[in-house]
Specification:
The complex is a heterodimer.
Chain A: E1 6-7, H1 18-24, H2 26-29, H3 42-62, E2 69-72, H4 75-90, E3 97-100, H5 106-117, E4 121-124, H6 135-141, E5 146-150, H7 164-173, E6 177-181, H8 193-196, E7 200-204, E8 215-219, H9 234-237, H10 245-257, H11 260-277, E9 283-285, E10 296-301, H12 306-315, E11 318-319, E12 321-322, H13 335-339, H14 344-348, E13 350-354, H15 361-381, H16 386-400
Helix pairs in contact in A: 1-10, 3-10, 4-5, 11-15, 12-15
Chain B: H1 7-14, E1 27-33, E2 38-46, E3 53-61, H2 64-77, H3 82-86, H4 90-96, H5 105-125, H6 137-144, E4 148-149, E5 154-155, E6 162-168, E7 171-179, H7 185-196, E8 204-210
Parallel strand pairs in B: 7-8
Antiparallel strand pairs in B: 1-2, 2-3, 4-5, 6-7
Classes of the chains: A alpha/beta, B alpha+beta.
């Protein structure tokens, strides 16, 4: 067994914080009743109070009213509900058109595709090579028939953050609702929904050391949205099902534990890692150098394939993720890297490193060294890039002369 | 270990045998492309009299199963005559590795393809092809099935990018349904020239792109 396993896939899932677990425990063993109305028995009222407190905590971080936040089973459900719910509610009144980007995460992208199959038109707004939305194209893409614009706060793979203030200003100017997938940014990056002008926002606990299977959807009061599942009247008659009190409490605790100081610590580790890895020849950073998630580094190493890189790193005790087709369940290369104009080779050689609370500063140098070694080993056996490397050696030698 | 790969696969992945290039090889072949995410090059040194494979080396750009199959296939081929080595199948390679996940077939079959292509390359270079049949449109098309369409990682024929193949006076003309300005136009041209150009009765390969 390895001495220490260095986990750098915090965008995929995070280790639960013990303090979150402690906050959740009473709602499994003591206050296990359903949240009842105020006329119910006291155990149910306690449960309801806990649920409402959790809701208020999350709403506060958004600058929203508590009743504008509903709990869901995670980002997938939240984004499905936001996009399909609003599109269907406005199909008659506004039109059958929505606008999004080609680099959204699958819940948004596949919800859009599902609407396309139902006869909706979808415009995918161009992004530049760093993954930032072309604002002029966004402005042009919105028509009087557009029911909704859905643009992520930050990208799940390359970490690029969008200028939401500018995006929201355009949406408001054109009178269109805006949904923001903030799964990877909330609450590390500020998201004041009223100040910015966001109408719906997808949130999740699994990216911030909270419980898995717990998320939320912010819905601005008065937003037309169709109820997605049939059932009871829970969550303001928008999301039926027995409430997951422990999950909601855990989510709120996880949100409270995210501090600006911690985010700065992650940012410093990320910057150091990017700096070290860019010293590996034929390496490039994917995503925007500044406008990016503080916890995300994504780089492409030319002439090597990501799955091999990932397995070698795993054997050395490091967990990372790759945009290679070989690694994906669909055997398709990262739609994000291709979406920002990268070719297949760049996608296959891309590696994502995402930091979390339980990473230590020493992890950075350890992983950087391991990556440099593995990349060099794999390049030695690769038929690609040999001549380019020779050229580099020659040019380096010339420079020394 | 919850890994889908057998211990033997992992061993060959960690320590691949016969890795590298042979300078001035008697034959070589490359299958796959960076676009499809897997690529294997095989280099052969063959005894001219006995047709026995004296040395074989491979290079791989690909996943663990690709690397491991390159390693095992070259192990199996070394010391065999080219006739024997031609018979090596993907199944044999997979069995020798203790099995490969079905989803990885297409990555691992490349190493077997590449070995066969290298042997074929040797036979063609050394005039060993039993009957020198004239190159037909069918034969060219068969070879185009080994040229990848980088946009989707599937071959040109399957993705219907081959608009026309014609042969006249030793000149093979291939029309590809992509603009000449396409990102991969040059890459595709080179691969087609490599796959078809060395055939005994082909003097020239002309690859054209539609507007």
């Amino acid at each position: 067994m390895l001495e220490r396993f260095v986990y750098l896939d915090n965008a995929a899932a995070t280790r639960l914080d013990e303090r979150v677990l402690e906050a959740m425990k009473p709602y499994f063993f003591d206050i296990y009743a359903v949240a009842t109305s105020q006329f119910g028995y006291s155990l149910g009222i306690d449960a309801r109070d806990a649920l409402e407190q959790a809701r208020a905590t999350i709403a506060r971080r958004l600058g929203a009213k508590a009743e504008e936040v509903i709990f869901t089973s995670g980002s997938t459900e939240s984004s499905n509900m936001a996009i399909k719910g609003v599109a269907l509610a406005l199909a008659e009144k506004k039109g059958r058109h929505i606008v999004t980007t080609p680099i959204e995460d699958f819940p948004v992208l596949h919800s859009a595709r599902s609407l396309e199959r139902q006869g909706f038109a979808v415009t995918y707004v161009r992004v530049d090579e760093s993954g930032r939305v072309d604002l002029e194209h966004l402005r042009q893409a919105i028509t009087p028939q557009t029911a909704l614009v859905s643009i992520q706060a930050a990208n799940q793979e390359i970490g690029t953050t969008q200028d939401l203030t500018a995006v929201a200003a355009i949406c408001r100017e054109r009178g269109v609702l805006l949904h923001v997938d903030a799964t990877h940014s909330f609450p590390r990056l500020p998201l004041d929904v009223h100040q910015i002008g966001v109408d719906l926002a997808t949130l999740s606990a699994h990216t911030i050391h909270g419980p898995r299977g717990v998320g939320a959807l912010y819905i601005r009061a008065g937003t037309p949205i169709r109820k997605f599942m049939d059932g009871g009247f829970q969550e303001f008659d928008l999301r039926p099902g027995v409430e997951d009190i422990a999950g909601a409490v855990g989510f709120a605790k996880a949100v409270e534990l995210i501090t600006p100081e911690e985010t700065e610590r992650l940012r410093a580790m990320r910057d150091r890692l990017i700096g070290r890895l860019l010293q590996v020849p034929y390496t490039r950073l994917n995503g925007h150098p500044e406008a990016r998630l503080p916890q995300n580094a994504n780089l492409s190493f030319r002439f090597v394939e990501g799955e091999s890189l990932l397995l070698h790193l795993d054997m050395r005790g490091f967990a990372v993720s790759t945009g290679s087709a070989c690694f994906s369940r669909s055997l398709e290369a990262s739609h994000v890297i291709l979406g920002i104009g990268g070719d297949h080779e760049r996608a296959h050689g891309s590696v994502r490193f995402t930091f979390g609370r339980f990473n230590q500063e020493s992890d950075v140098d350890a992983v950087a060294e391991a990556v440099a070694e593995v990349v060099s080993d794999l390049r030695r056996i690769s038929p690609l890039g040999k001549d380019a490397e020779r050229e580099q050696l020659v040019s380096e030698a010339n420079r020394r002369l | 270990m919850p890994l889908p790969y057998s211990e033997i696969v992992m061993e060959h992945f960690r320590h691949p045998r016969n890795v590298g290039r042979i300078e001035n090889p008697d034959a070589k072949a490359v299958e796959g492309s960076p676009a499809c995410g897997d690529m294997v090059a095989v280099y052969l040194k063959v005894d001219e009299k006995t047709h026995r494979i004296e040395d074989v080396k491979f290079e791989s750009y690909g996943c663990a199963s690709n690397i491991a199959t390159g390693s095992i296939v070259t192990e199996l081929a070394k010391g065999k005559t080219i006739e024997e080595a031609k018979q090596i199948t993907w199944k044999e390679a997979s069995d020798a590795l203790g099995g490969l996940p079905p989803i990885k077939t297409h990555c691992s079959v490349l190493a077997v393809d590449s070995l066969r292509a290298a042997i074929q390359n040797y036979e063609e270079r050394h005039g060993l092809v039993a009957e020198r049949e004239p190159t037909t449109v069918e034969a060219v098309t068969r070879r185009l099935k080994h040229v990848m369409n980088p946009v989707v990682g599937l071959d040109l024929v399957r993705t219907k990018l081959v608009r026309e193949v014609s042969i006249a006076d030793g000149v093979v003309r291939v029309v590809i349904d992509l603009p000449a300005t396409h990102q991969f136009a040059n890459n595709i041209r080179e691969e087609i020239e490599e796959k078809v150009g060395h055939l005994w009765d082909v003097q020239q390969v002309v690859v054209q792109f539609t507007e």
